[in-house]
Design a protein that fits this description.
Layout: E1 3-9, E2 19-25, E3 45-47, H1 50-67, E4 73-78, H2 92-104, H3 134-152
Parallel strand pairs: 2-4
Antiparallel strand pairs: 1-2, 1-3
């Protein structure tokens, strides 16, 4: 799953709540449609790590505030489900706590513990594990074969 970071100017929202740096769970398809053209580093990008996404969003908000000091700018996370649904801004500490928890729940490789961007399995034994790469899957398969050889001798 990915997290898409964008600046938003929510249409029809209260002026104090309409300018938001958004972290959308699920990628660009689950971001709100009131997206502004990317201007700052990290904006308009997908992140696999929610902690990185939140850090980028907080940095973008700071840069945006420097350029427009009178503007009320929030940072929020959410999931639109493919609809329009403005996110409610949160404090930086709340966002960081949410991101850390979300990071801990990311799917991991059964071999090396890295976050799985794709899932690889063993054709011979798909229940043996889920791996982050063909390399980890093959290493597991090689070790299993080696253990079988040792048991047979």
């Amino acid at each position: 799953m990915s997290y898409f970071v964008s600046r938003q100017c929510y249409w029809g929202a209260d002026p104090d709540d309409q300018n938001v740096v958004e972290v959308a769970f699920g990628g660009v398809d689950y971001a709100n449609p009131d997206m502004l053209v990317p201007k700052y580093a990290g904006e308009g990008q997908d992140y696999l790590d929610p902690v990185e996404a939140v850090e980028a969003a907080l940095n973008i908000a700071e840069e945006w505030k420097k350029d427009h000091p009178g503007l009320s700018i929030g940072v929020a996370h959410g999931f639109t489900g493919g609809f329009t649904m403005p996110f409610i801004p949160s404090e930086a500490q709340e966002l960081k706590e949410w991101a850390k928890k979300a990071q801990e729940e990311l799917p991991r490789c059964d071999r090396c513990g890295a976050v799985r961007k794709e899932t690889f399995t063993l054709v011979e034994d798909p229940d043996r594990g889920k791996f982050c790469s063909a390399f980890c899957a093959e290493k597991t398969m090689d070790e299993d074969a080696k253990l079988l050889e040792e048991e047979e001798t």
